Amino acid sequence: MNGGGEETGFEVAIVVPKRSERERDESSGDCVEFLVRELEKAGLIVERFRGVPAEFIKVAAPLETLGRAAADLQMKKLTYIGMELQFDWDQVAAFVRQPDGSLFSWCERFNCFRYLIYGIVNRTNTELTLKFDDKEFLYERNESLLGKMEAVGIVKQVFPLHDEVRRKQLLGNWALNWLDFTWQPIDEIYSYFGTKIATYFAFLGMYTRWLFFPAVFGLAMQIIDFGPLQLLVLPAFFVFVISWAVFFFQFWKRKNSALLARWGINYSLSEYKAIDTQMSSLTQKTDWEKKCDTNRLVEKTRLQRDEWLDLLLRFRNNAIVILAIICLQLPFELAYAHLYEITETEVLRYLLTAVYLFAINYYTRIGGKVSAILIKCENNQGEESSAASLVYKVFGLYFVQSYIGLFYHALLHRNISTLRQVLIQRLIVSQVLENLIENSIPYLKYSYKKYKAVHKKKHEKGLTPEKSVRLFTRVEKEFLKPSYTASIGDELEDGLFDDFLELALQFGMIMMFACAFPLIFCFATLNNITEIRADALKLLVMLRRPVPRAAATIGAWLNIFQFLVVMAICTNCLLLVYLYDQEGKWKIEPGLASILIMEHVLLLIKFGFSHFVPEEPAWVRAHRVRNVAQARDACSKQLLRSISTLDRKWD
Amino acid sequence: MNGGGEETGFEVAIVVPKRSERERDESSGDCVEFLVRELEKAGLIVERFRGVPAEFIKVAAPLETLGRAAADLQMKKLTYIGMELQFDWDQVAAFVRQPDGSLFSWCERFNCFRYLIYGIVNRTNTELTLKFDDKEFLYERNESLLGKMEAVGIVKQVFPLHDEVRRKQLLGNWALNWLDFTWQPIDEIYSYFGTKIATYFAFLGMYTRWLFFPAVFGLAMQIIDFGPLQLLVLPAFFVFVISWAVFFFQFWKRKNSALLARWGINYSLSEYKAIDTQMSSLTQKTDWEKKCDTNRLVEKTRLQRDEWLDLLLRFRNNAIVILAIICLQLPFELAYAHLYEITETEVLRYLLTAVYLFAINYYTRIGGKVSAILIKCENNQGEESSAASLVYKVFGLYFVQSYIGLFYHALLHRNISTLRQVLIQRLIVSQVLENLIENSIPYLKYSYKKYKAVHKKKHEKGLTPEKSVRLFTRVEKEFLKPSYTASIGDELEDGLFDDFLELALQFGMIMMFACAFPLIFCFATLNNITEIRADALKLLVMLRRPVPRAAATIGAWLNIFQFLVVMAICTNCLLLVYLYDQEGKWKIEPGLASILIMEHVLLLIKFGFSHFVPEEPAWVRAHRVRNVAQARDACSKQLLRSISTLDRKWD
């Protein structure tokens, strides 16, 4: 069995501690044996493999097992008539296939796996006693076997496995394909990593492609002398960049919905979130609601109350976060920027920066935790909605952390040359460093774990060091690799949070200070071309295969990008004022200034606050969604049969 | 038969010229006799009535006839599972009933009537010769009888009839119910006038209700002396008014979707337009598309090309309208405002105003016609979309016409007191005048027509003048009443255009000059309270029953209102500058001013231009909508049967 880890098809691995062979008896009470038998009974193909650091149970599933699981899960799948209906294995012809011809997407497959594995429960009428080595535990009735084994510490991990053939294929035509700067095999990425990661790379690719235009403009401004028109070039560049951003995001929305159509995800962008989140909140309440169905008015009142309470709660949480940022982080950032400006020796500056970095790191981590706690008392509907709420809150922290220093140099001290230096430094040094850290830390972790495991093995078996190189099979290597997690904690977000954050901070930097340093777009373009490959390599080589997520848009990040565009309009205007008024002669009356500030606040209210009050009352939405749900549940079977026959006719 | 026009149930009238009794022979060739027979064959209940001005054929329909017509029309109706399916008379239990318990809404009923009446075609294999008096005409095969009769001038008009019982009921508890200031029986209005008019009144009522808040604030500012805080009151009022408007429109959207839910119109606000318009454009192309279905790529390319061509065309048309306004109307308006300012004698001013009013009336009419022509070359999807396009274009004209004079006084000449005078004059005098004209012109027209008809009748029969008072039956009176048409032409819009225009101009006036004259909100409130009753009276008493329209939102007007809010932020800031800087001491550098202008233009681009590029590519939407349509067509029957049974179970 050793070395046989290269088969395709095994998609999930369960890790249990290794025992020495002599202790492994074939008595019926051994829980690992029991688990394997139960897995096989559930229709899964199981392969056990004793590796160096632990024992692995690799699990594959025939299509039919997955199909039955999907039907049990009441999974909704797109049919050929464009409606999502409950999956039914007997009417399989009615369901739209993936672009690569398979029935289930990776995300659906993983959900089925999880359902199958965690769905093994004790269906007998008695409690069973299972043992592992010398440990014994009671396996109670209707208890999930894997859940119990995780609870008592026997199952260490359950993680998705890479598919070696497709991984190598992607490595060749994506991560190591340096010839096409921004082209990526998005469909293959989708079918290997799922919607959310594919959407990230599609966005990154399109963003980089679009970046070429302002990069060329910026480069032209640096090289060409426009003579008497020089004064007009900068405002023209500013207008160009803002229009570019506006159109980019509009075209991104189009691209996103085109991608969703291609992948058979049948939601219009605007409807997507609404139905999806409502559905999940509805399923939790179905029992209660059935009783209440007779009394529509009571339900309506309840839903309305819930809606406003929820809004109030969210408003309060956001207020807390904003206050914390303004009262705690802002003074700290300004103090650092000021101290940095007035210290004279380089040594002190480095010392200061070190202290600052340490403190800010600590602060950010606390901020992330506080945000996660705050979000738990919000009544977010669905996981993706909670994740979006977290993204907004944490981005506030990073926004202040990243830009306050820049604003300090640019606006308070009118120090454009320092601003340019800091921008170059941030964009090149910090992003290169970040990429290095991003990729090297997982590798170092992995190497360390590997070294430890080898060391252990050598101790055990007394093998010669030369042989240890060939010791590791694929599944063992993957076990040692770190998983794709966010730096702020892995409860609500995965590693995409960090990748999007990097992108958003870069976008903010290049947009908000575009007029101060137009060449910055070139650096960003170069940076992003390497970023695509670096992220691809990270996902394919450095890390475990990430757990797929269902979200089909870039979600909260789109709003953040849009917000940055509005910010960019204001900051660039200020920058232009400082650039054209180098002697500081332009005066403004305090009255006029306060009216201008009021105008900006009101425009913010106009365009921002309408987001706070949802356009559709909760009860209307609940009503509509329940109707759709009823349609699905009641008529699924009949509809499916007719679609299957239709499908055959069309063929 | 005379005097029998008071029955309910007769909902449509067909008007043919009156002939003297002796000429009316019972030969088979008489086309009116033929029409009546054909109408009866179609299952309609027909009543002929010889009135004073013409002969009327009143038509009623039993529910079953309407149901069969709806099924023939392939009308989509909401079912109890929340999906719209093709109507089927046999599965009537599956469809959601109206709030008043009837199966069809007034709009659906009228569509069925129209289908039934115009659906009478010559199904024989030969051409028939029909005659009317001495005129003969050929009734060709597969030709619509009513269409032909309209073409040769025999059928003068087909119009919907008032329902006397319900009209009187509405008159009592709505139009003449002065005790409830803003409460209206919206559901009854909906079932009597259809969605669009009910939505207008719901909006007007809510707007008036919300107006109380700024009206009270404005009144308080007038009455109370805030002492040292006086300087801060005006900005506070400004912020309050803008926030008020933002929240009002957000809550209006909520109310609108709640209304739609109550009336069984199953569309989310955002999806409504998309699906609906696409559906209509799709049905026109179905044949062509079926052929093309095999070749998805070709279709995609075609749809993309069409989409961009369409956008370009619309862009060009808007550019033409905007240029025409700036180059032709703007100088004219400014010239008038300037001349008005410099003329000294009152007589000359009146003369000037008369010339101006004459010219502007002419200009507006030409503008409306040009817009209608421009819209015809646009590829608007659906009638409501064309109407929206017209509304935007014509509102541009009215906007400049109504506000440029005000801006001239307020901003160019800093003449706040003249501005206040003009505002009072416009709001009170012109709106009162407009209401009077609005209501008296139809009445005068009606009286004149009535007088003429009476005169004619007296001539014919030689009756004594005392008797003529009781001569008219309801249907004759309605025939003499004018119909509910827009002042800019009745092709795309009905009278709601004028009502909404009045509302939008009023809203713009009170919002954009709020700081100059806070008391204006009180006048607007009073105005609107009378406006509700005046419009109700107009619809119930002065005019014929309007042809119902399907649109379920206030459509283009919402965007216009939102635009006015943004304008209000900018104009009020300027007003505040002028109010606080009465000596004109505040100076602004030209550089700073140009940067500020650039900022405002960019903010406009950010928030306005994203409307130009649709979020979803046309081919994605076509794909999605076609799928839904297929679902409806293919599975309608089966689904309906199961819903009917479900329904019975739930009951």
Number of helices of chain A: 19
* Arithmetic mean pLDDT of chain A: 80
Domain count of chain A, please report it: 2
**Number of DSSP E strands of chain A:** 8
| Distance N to C terminus of chain A | 45 Å
Order of H and E elements of chain A: EHEEHEEHEEHEHHHHHHHHHHHHHHH
Largest interface, Cβ cutoff 8 Å: A-B, 76 and 76 residues
Uncertain residue segments of chain A: 1-8, 268-292
Chain oligomer state: homodimer
Alpha-beta classification of chain A: mainly alpha
Query: What general outline of chain A do the C-alpha atoms trace?
Result: globular
Widest β-sheet, arrangement of strands of chain A: 2-3-1-8
State which percent range the strand residues of chain A make up. 5-15%
Features:
homodimer; 651 residues; mainly alpha; 2 domains; two-stranded antiparallel sheet; 65% helix; disordered N terminus
